[in-house]
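Lab notebook, bench 4. The sequencing result for the construct came back, and we need a structural model before the next group meeting so we can plan mutations. Quick request posted to the team channel:

Model the 3D structure of this chain.
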Amino acid sequence: MGLFKKRTPELPAFPPEEYEPVLRCSICTGEQVACMRRRESGRLHEIMLIRSPEDLEEFCRSYGVKAEELRKIY
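Done. Here's the predicted structure in token form:
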């Protein structure tokens, strides 16, 4: 019985013509957060904390981008 099965949250959908995927990186701690950046205003919407390479792969797979294409914002 699957009463206590861990759910994987659904990532919100963003129109690619309005948003671009980016990584917000901390200079001090090295923490990385996957975000969607609005092209016209530059506002960031945080999606998920990147703790491991698997998290980065999941983000890239969900939004159809390659890790090499992600721009880092410090």
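The helical segments are 53-63.
Will bring this to the meeting.
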